[in-house]
Specification:
It is built from 14 helices and two strands; from the N terminus they run ααααααβαααααβααα. The protein is mainly α. It has a two-stranded antiparallel sheet with strand order 1-2. The model has no long low-confidence stretch (mean pLDDT about 80).
Length: about 300
Amino acid sequence: MIWFMSVVGLIILLVAGDFLVRGAVNLSLRLGIPALIVSLTIVAFGTSAPELIIAIKAALDGAAGIALGNVVGSNTANVLLVLGIPAIITALDTRDCETRKTYVAMLLATALFIGLAFTGQFAIWQGLVLLGALALFLFDATQDARKHRKATNEDVELEGADASISMGKILLFLGLGLIGLPLGADILVNNATIIARQYGVSETVIGLTLVALGTSLPEFSTTIMAATRRQADVALGNVIGSNLFNLLGIIGVASLFAPLDVDQSFVQVDLWVMLGASLVLVPFVFFGRQLTRSWGIFLTVLYIGYVMYLIL
């Protein structure tokens, strides 16, 4: 039953996150907020809403291992699994992807996160540092996006935007999202904690595996769709952007609610695995290497090996 309830909580989280994004996007556009700003803020945070609510709930419950494991595990899974499996299905041609600047920002965010982890916990001041870095990134991204829009005269297309949607439906989406997210998080965290205790594994391992894999499903589905449409830039950008927001935004906000103590296993192993997974993207971002099926198999096998190491 606890496994079933964990899946139920995860499904509620994912559906509620989708409802929240759709409602927030359409309400913002209805209020006249530019699509560009919406895409860089509401959509980015909205798709990371499951991770955010999980982290806050875990922080308030004193389950720092689940909060940090969720983010670190999700970032590792995003590179090795979320990119690996789509590459197996159909090779990704990343030669023309313009993701260098965002990728460098992600590496800097990773380095900052690891540096702060060595302080022993993520408390208010560490959270403010992370959120400050996120604000700088958003400001820079907004400036770049405005320049690109002026140069190309292209408007931003937002998934979930619907000009014909009624205000009543928008409010319904928002309500379902705001109710479903904390409900799903409560169910998932509670049952994940019970699983950890029953099977004698740490909350950190549950966060790095079960919870992280579950909350990476939105990125996985987006990347699969992008890969089948031959949109390598969307697939790669989705993973890089998600990882950046996870590090700076999710833990930045969660640490304002309660301090998150950093387990030694993170410092000794998991943070370095996350960094190593991030560096695996260097050939594809900087040197135009194609993400072939062979690479996809290699990345997926690396992730399976990491999970086996955690469990065994």
